[in-house]
Design goal:
Elements lengths: L2 H18 L7 H20 L7 H23 L6 H6 L6 H27 L10 H23 L6 H14 L12 H7 L3 H13 L7 H25 L3 H4 L1
């Protein structure tokens, strides 16, 4: 059985199914993140008057990758538990299910990213050769998201309450990832602590590339890649050890 074909077909089917459930179809993929980002801008940009003239661009470069991360990890963690019927009907390696979720959200991210680029260009940002580094950042973020989604999806069926901890943990992590502030302007122990947060480092890398026209830090790329290997290895071990037990617990 060609599992790659299954992953790609199921990803496409999920995208079509999601689009068909709304009257405006795939346009909702644009509208939903725009409303999401607009709400935070009204709160932090206008309501609390945080940031300067460039705050809109600064905020968007943080919210767009964060939205991809949070929605993928949240949905991916529930992917095995949410597919009880499929698992009971046919055998599939369990990593396929979170992979489908992450690919589905990647497709949505790739729809929104060009919109972000257009907004930046219209807003006065200059296109640069450094923007090619986005390819590497997207691949690196995909690996981070996929590893965390696989790891959490392997545990949630055995510890169902963990999904609530994940949801609240993602909310806390959003405020610790520099989405609304520049982590480079922090001092002391807080700055040191946030420097170990791979999501904060990725968001800063996106801003370096898109707003500062700089190459992302090599140390950032190495750290995020190395960090991602740990949950990826743990999830592979869990899937191999618990493969036959998923049917019994979900």
């Amino acid at each position: 059985m060609n599992y790659l074909d299954i992953i790609l077909y199921k990803t496409w089917a999920d995208l079509r199914s999601e689009a068909s459930r709304a009257y405006i179809g795939f346009l909702w993929w644009f509208i939903e993140p725009v409303l999401y980002m607009g709400a935070f801008y009204l709160l932090f940009g206008l309501g609390l008057r945080m940031g300067g003239d460039n705050f809109v661009h600064f905020l968007l470069c943080g919210l767009v990758p964060w939205k991809w991360f949070s929605s993928s990890v949240s949905s991916g963690s529930r992917s095995i538990a949410a597919n009880t019927g499929l698992i009971n009907q046919v055998y599939l390696p369990k990593y396929i299910l979170p992979t489908i979720v992450v690919l589905t959200n990647l497709a949505k991210f790739l729809v929104i990213l060009p919109v972000l680029v257009v907004v930046l260009l219209v807003g006065g940002e200059d296109i640069s050769v450094h923007w090619f580094a986005l390819i590497l950042l997207i691949l690196l973020q995909f690996f981070l998201i996929w590893s965390l989604a696989c790891f959490t999806s392997a545990i949630v069926p055995f510890v169902p309450d963990l999904k609530y901890l994940i949801e609240n943990g993602l909310l806390l992590l959003m405020f610790l990832s520099g989405v609304f502030f520049d982590i480079n302007r922090l001092d002391g122990d807080i700055a040191v602590a946030l420097s170990y947060n791979p999501v904060a480092l990725l968001i800063q890398a996106y801003r370096d590339v898109l707003l500062a026209n700089q190459w992302p830090s090599v140390s950032t790329l190495v750290y995020v890649g190395g960090f991602s290997i740990v949950p990826a290895a743990l999830s592979w071990w869990l899937f191999s050890r618990l493969d036959k037990k998923f049917v019994k617990v979900i």
